[in-house]
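> run fold Guanine nucleotide-exchange factor SEC12
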Amino acid sequence: MAPNIASAKITLSCPLFAADFDPRNNGFLLVGGGGGEGRSGVGNKIALLDTSKRNEIAEVVDIELSRDEDSVTSLAAAHADDESVVAFAGINSSQKEQLEGNNQHLRSFRVAYPPRKSTAAVTGPEANAEGEVEKETTSASTVSKQQKTVPLSRASLFRNPTTKPAKGQKIDTYQRILRLSPWRGPDAPRIGAVATGLAPSGEIVLFNVTTTPSESDILARIQLGAGEEAEDLDIIDLEDGNFRVAYTDGVQVSIFDISSKSKSNTSPEIRSVYTMPKTKTRPKLRALRLLSPWAVLVLQNAPNRSGCELAVLSIPPSGPAQATVIRRRKLPRSMKIGLGLDVSNLGENETKERQYVLAVSGSDQSIGVYTLDYSPKKGYSAPRPYTTLRDVHPFSMTKLCFSTFTPPAHPVTAAVGPQYLKLASVSMGNTVVVHTFPLIPWPPPSRTPRYLLVKPGHPETWDTIFSSFIALLVVVLACFLLQAFTEIRGGTPPYLGATDWLSPRVRAWIARPYMFDHHIPGRVVPDITPPSPIPQIKVQDESLRKLLSARRAAGAIDLASDTAPQPPAIFVRDEGTAISAYTAQGAEALIQQETARKWEDLHEEEREKWKKRLIEAGHWAIEEGEAVLKGVFFSQIGEIIGGAIAR
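> ok
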């Protein structure tokens, strides 16, 4: 059972589309959004939020942007120090500038932190055990310096469209994706990637992460086909300043390697490693994250809003071989569409074992949180559900992201406090929600532990054995209930003695349909005796009047008597084109009676039809009266065929 997860919520003044944590301090969160260009009355902004408290969020810096330009569509924290954080943002220039071929879509801002608390030696009742108390700095010069936020640069990395739009037509291309490689420290190299949205043909541009990125920092360009665009991309570091990039266009997953030292305006060598199987209604890849250079996690949406799932792909080292799906996890049915995906790597131990935390946002305003374990011996486990956060936002979520988790240095001492992982999500409803997950050291007594969200699961062999046992138990229980049910109804011999479990009244009610000789009139199930020959029906095609006269002459008045010999039963059959009358006796009569009814059992409407047919065939006349027809069995050819099928 998942523990109680702390959460905090704040509502800002505009719709939000982007968010990212400070990589050095998960107590600060950058969010951005707005109403876009125009006079909608909703401005555009970037805000720095204080998320250091688990149950409260405070807005500490508010950057109001121009309403003559587009809203913030993507956001990432690039550099951070003790005083500020450098943020990259995707903001389109005004339509006027775009029509002139100038769209400076990549912006850089230095966002200063609010005044920090300092310690001063004091004496008195408020002092702590060490004689110090925390109080806010009150220097006006310090406050003004720390609260100053400045824009650093504007750059246009995408190629300008080759064809200009028609007069009065808008340019819809914008910076849909902004993704940076994982933060490994202030001195470690990082690269970034931006991708277009709503462009005639998609484009991905990779660049070195500097404080003021420009065209001179471009490392490579990838031009997609007409009508294609990147649905999502991710970057993971390799060695010696090299990186691996994976992206998806919704149908296939492609990867390539790139170095932060080599600059080129051309496309790198790209390898397609996975393609969705061709079907009439093909699923779509919504998002992806690289778990390692050789494994990628994808979020896949089924057609027609019929659900979504997570899949782990194993990437072949080289060559044209396609990646294979090694793990799958169907997401809850209520999540008809997966909207967003993020992954946090909690670090590894000496044996290279590690745990990932996965978060998936859905169309039902919920967030599913899963864990995925990796060990060199067993590989990747299937994603295991941890918890589902329901009704997180009032409107559709636009972004979710984990904070960067940096494990404490080893050896871990008692001075190291509890560790937490934070998950932020923003929505079209102006809301920001931050959930805080407590982490546990594993194994607990170790001074060099790795941190986990939940203890590693049982080996998958045990899961398979348990699932097989449950399936076998269900089958045995179903067989037991079926045997008991058929015994009560008299369909099988009483091996279990189930008829004694019920009261006579309930047993009689349940067993009624199978009491053939008492509860289904005219139906007899004879015992099967192999040596007995099957009786043949002897049909005497005679006049009904003659048969009735013979019966009267024999004096067969009481048909129900068991002491006197029973006369042959008279049958009348309507064959469609003619009516035949015949007699049968003994077993033959019993068989015939299964598909025939006595004159007394016919409804009034049926009697009228039969009288008409008998008159037409010359078997009977009105002046003879109906009394002579009593005891005669009547049937039609269709009833006989149906009875034979039933037997």
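Residues 460-488 form the longest helix (29 residues).
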